[in-house]
């Protein structure tokens, strides 16, 4: 993307463009603001500043061991398989005072938790993705539940709201807001309700940060089709329409909604609830793309001094092989490892064990044939796998997939847990992103081992 920008390929069809966002996931990192010493809170041990509002998971073990982090809530993430340096992370999790996991499956991380809060599956609840990254038309798809929830599972909105209520962070009832939320659906009901909500926040500033749960408990109870979890979309839609009024009106012509500056956001919210297959929420022109740059000077900052200093310090793009002559690319995307919903190995029609791919000539030198069990190790750890010959790889380069190494119904880990090989310290110095595509390893034939770990 830097090359696109340096050569002027921005803001035109087929080039690099920004986009709108109904649910902001990442924020803008203003490098000049950081340089002036006004950056957001840094972590205790690494003194890591947030990038786009987030901190890298790679530093979490150190922050637990040395930074005083004592409690963690893990939501929809199997960190003990997905995150780098599994062994270091496992040791660190064992030193926490409290580990809570919210998830739809009994993951490896859930098994290590003090408390497990089971969430309803994506087929049992209202849900949407925040990864709507299209331009010039952007869309939003609110997915409806298709089957009733089973057992003791709950949607995440209910889990978090109950926690806040039990902790005394929000009251159990909001009588006035609940009364206003009972009005007939429409523009007046929603705008009057939001005015009362803003007045509540003005009087009790400590409640602002819990606005999503308050909306869920009040307005949410009176939305049709038990759509309580969608209530926080109302202020988001209103803010979105306020930020991009012309672009939302253009989209509204396709979905038959519109309105003035007061009604537009409410009508967008109602259209989102109505459209089962999603809808376009904004339509930009390419010339308007420049307005989406968030830096106050309206420019894209290509000269990031800290990054250029690191680049200038690079002496070589290769590391000496030493005791580890092979370069492993852990994390290859294959046909059946897109995510960790694939816990039952029978769902994988091929490659159930997550084979280690290597060039036939490398395999021959090691005395390996197709399907042979192997051990792949380095100073961080080791994994077991089976060999799959692939002449599309360079000599000296091997590959393993991500998403394996999970247990199913009490089984041993099935396939390689590649993050037993990724060291937290082997990372980019600025973002702390591990060098996932360059892990030095040695490979040897495993005798008498059934490769399931």
Molecular structure report:
- The protein is an alpha/beta fold and 453 residues long.
- The protein contains 15 helices and 13 strands.
- Strands 8-12-9-11-10-13 form a six-stranded mixed barrel.
- Helix 3 (60-66) packs parallel to helix 5 (86-93), helix 7 crosses helix 10 and helix 11 crosses helix 12 (245-255).
- It is globular, with a radius of gyration of 25 Å.
In short:
The protein is of the alpha/beta class. It contains 15 helices and 13 strands.
Key terms for this structure?
453 residues, alpha/beta, 3-stranded parallel β-sheet, 13 strands, globular
- Determine the structural class based on helices, strands and strand pairing: alpha/beta
Q: What value does the average pLDDT take?
A: 89
Report Rg: 25 Å
Share in helix: 25-40%
The portion of residues forming beta strands comes to 5-15%
Strand order of the largest sheet: 8-12-9-11-10-13
Multimerization status: single chain
Task: Assign an overall shape.
Answer: globular
Order of helices and strands: HHHEHHEHEEEEHHHHHHHEHEEHEEEE
Q: Could you tell me how far the N terminus lies from the C terminus, measured between alpha carbons in angstroms?
A: 38 Å
**Low-pLDDT residue intervals, each spanning 5 or more residues:** none
